[in-house]
Amino acid sequence: MHEPDANFSLNKLFNYLNMTRTLLLIFLISFFLLNTAFSQDVTISVNAAADNKPVSPYLYGRNNSFSNVFGTPTTESEIQLYREAGLRFSRENNGNNATKYNWKRKISSHPDWYNNVYDHDWGLVCQTIESDMPDLHAMFAFQLIGKVAANKNNNFNDWGYNNSQWWDGVGQNLAGGGEVNPSGGHDALTDGDPDLYLMDWPADSTTAILDHWFGSDGLGFDPKKFQYWSMDNEPEIWSGTHDDVMPTLPSANAFMDMYFATAKKAREKFPDVKLVGPVPANEWQWYRWGDESLTIGGQYYCWLEYFIKRVADEQQTSGIRLLDVLDIHWYPSESSNADVLQLHRVFYDESYTYPGANGLKTINGGWDNSLNKEYIFKRIEDWLDEHFGEGHGITLCISEFGANSSDPTINAVLYASMLGTFSEHGVEIFTPWTWKTGMWETLHLFSRYAKTTSVRTTSDQDNMVSGYSTMNSTSDSLTLMLVNRDLSSSKTVNVNLTGFSVAHGSYTVLELSSLPGSETFISHSNNALKERTINASGNSFEISIPPLSVTAILLKGGTSDVVLSTPDIPELHNINLFPNPATGSFTLELTSIDKIPSKVVIYNIRGEKCATLNWSSPQKSTLTVPMERFESGVYFLEIRGDDFICRKKLVVKN
Questions:
Q1: C-alpha to C-alpha distance for 605 and 559, rounded to whole angstroms
Q2: Which of 83, 181, 223, 442 has its CA 20 to 30 A from that of 496?
């Protein structure tokens, strides 16, 4: 047996120590780089002159805000809350209860409560809105299924059964003499007879509400406030929700016939009606109509594209506009905070792998498990352009939505991400169904402080921190909303602006973060907004935002209608500019002035020279300038003389 070599053992020890030191150094460097990456500053770039789109006020909406039962009016405190929060739209058709609503008798059958019939008065809602919410618009629904409630005489006695408590059997078809199944579940021992509590309701009956509300002998409601009409509710699942009259789902073609009959009647009675359809129930139903394989001319179409093509073909044949707003519902199943905070990306982000994609995998007719990038609104826009042609004017809507989170701050941040995404893409209507703590705060922040025109805003870390910018109609006020979805890290954000020069000064910052479990929104002046200020000037500034937060920065433009003059030249306050805003042309007028201009230079908001005009005669006191070829927006005039320059701002609305 050989004795161990001492030198060899020492060498092994030194080599081991050197290797350990190297690994430790690599670990420390990696740790430093990793943390540097996570703490990296975010750059937000705003271009106020690009991608300008009007922001629809109907994004600031929700479902079922007003009482429709006579004797139990919407309370004054509820009305006050809606006003203070800035609620601008409400979908008031009560979801599944809309399908069998009888507007003549003011009753509806409830499919989720034994099919029992109860009082509903949509006219009461309209009266409340017109008297108490002058700035709010509402959406109701036409019934397409062909049956509506007829009477309340054949209800299941749920009070006598269990004091009207919810239990597993509330979906049994017991109205009309059904026999209850005490074991629960959907199936009754004997189903009730729907002919005892329902009546026929063709297209003429459902659209006659337009005459009743808006006609010369009607109730006199303002048609502009109630212009939007949903084409029933979730028809792809009628065989489940309304199985008393639709135990088997009708074919997609049969539904399209129902749709066309009602849409044409509605357009005839109310040419300005906004037809909103087809209102599918969830992600699976975006792509499938039951188990039916939908083909046209031998080509397979998923359900939403089939619907779009059928409407486009019928519209071309009939010459009648049959769709104004394409509407979907969505109830995602994700429950982890990290997934919930990314849900806004499902609509337009073509790079986002959505873990909840399922119906999407059937988009081509089979089952393709590799399909996981949803971008559903982008797909819909492409289908609309393909089948209707560009310039069709059909907008988008999500009229029911609910996410799985009970954390108010998560809800506030997700809601902000969706409002921001929809505003920058021109979505028209957003009315969440499930309303949770944290959402009033976000609605108030956006409705009260965001402006009317979305402008291009990009982030170099958009998955975690996004910016959404809006500008007012005169382009001199801009609100930047920053959304930080990081659950634990604050962010330093560097903001760079073009097309909008920030005046030097202090600006208000409003922030939502770390919301408690109970409701914090009381009013416009009593809420959870944390106010601070930042100093900014020129076209860039820096701001720190906390983790999981929504931050609004309220900015003012730096160029104003001021007169510049040298000390020895009096201010030229007697050069008048009218009309302002201008449409078609404007006029400059001199009054009692001894300094005569020689030329006028017109710049756009980006500082680009648009035109140079010579003052035609020193003796002429007015100069009229045609602006028909100029796009709507803000312009600046430099009125020049030999020894002075006067600057004025002009708004053009062409």
A1: 9
A2: 442
